[in-house]
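Re: the request from the purification team.
They wanted to know what the chain is likely to look like in 3D before they choose a buffer screen. I agreed to run a prediction and write the result into the notebook, where they can find it.
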Amino acid sequence: MTTRRNAIQTLAAAAIGAPFINRGRFSLFPGDSQQYSERCIRLMRESIVVDMLAVFSLGPDGTKWMMNPDTFTAADAQRWKDSGITAIHPAQGTGGPDAYQQTFSFLSMIQGFVAAREEFMRIDSADDFARAKAAGRVGVILGVQNSQHFRTVRDIDAFHALGQRISQLTYNSRNMIGNGSTERRDEGLSDFGVSVVEKMNTVGMAIDVSHCGDRTSLDAFEVSKAPVLITHSNARALNPGHPRCKPDEVIRACGKAGSIMGITNVRNFVKDKEPTTIEDYVNHFEYVAKMIGIEQVGIGSDIDLFGYDAMPPEDYKRLKAAYKGSYAFRDKIDIEGVDHPRRMYNLTEALIKRGYTDAQLTGILGGNAVRVLGKAWTKTA
């Protein structure tokens, strides 16, 4: 008689092309000594896996691919396939006096890349996540990490028509909408900011406050009729004083709104001292889950498939120099174990050890994000 365990072992060996390893663990890829449990592999195979903030490349490859999609190689495509990720939100921080044109160009380039590559597809609705999973393609949610390109509320209609589905209200500094997380003072949403939130609700564009100041974040939750997202941030209680982490008051507002908070594995957002490990990272999932419910927790890694520490040295240096000292960068930005293309498998294993059920893990991996985005993308009166 074929047991469920035997069926999983047979499926995994056939699908992965690797032999069964004793104690119910498998090597996923030839030449890779990393082993994963059958439960982890099954969850990754069955779940819609959504990274609410992940870019194509932190290095020069990203620009190269956008400018010339033919430079995206079979090896590049295989890495995304191996990652197990169903969909990403590769939002970029735009801004400055030419924010409108800069954002238009950025979104247009991504559109062109996605249209040219059969490995990807654009996500426009909650139903598209399942379509991407079934087709074996990586879904791409168009978004921006600043809303400075909204010169008037009419621009929101135009960018929604272009495909933009998420817009972070501010980046780290102040704009006409509100204040960023590293701004000297945070006085909340402006009158214009309130009108932007209301218009985004009307057209069905999701609001993100990951980089917003605390008061601006709370104002957005108060004004919005739709769930406001925190796509990539962490709990300040576990990393006291860090401006890119959210205080309990904001996390509770997220819970009250029936929204979602994506946890990031950026080292200096996770913990303020060494050692900083994958267990410290998972502590943020657990903290937020205990406060507002496991069904309101997701993933927003804030990296590409290889992480910041793999960037070319000069690019890495420039990146660190571009942020205020309050970001508290250390020697490394990534966390070992979640700094490679199969990081979602490692995260799943770490979450399994915390005792979560399959249903809870499926939610964290992406089900929660799909549900909340479906609500955020519903037009309001």
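For the purification team: Residues 1-46 form one domain.
Please add any questions underneath this entry.
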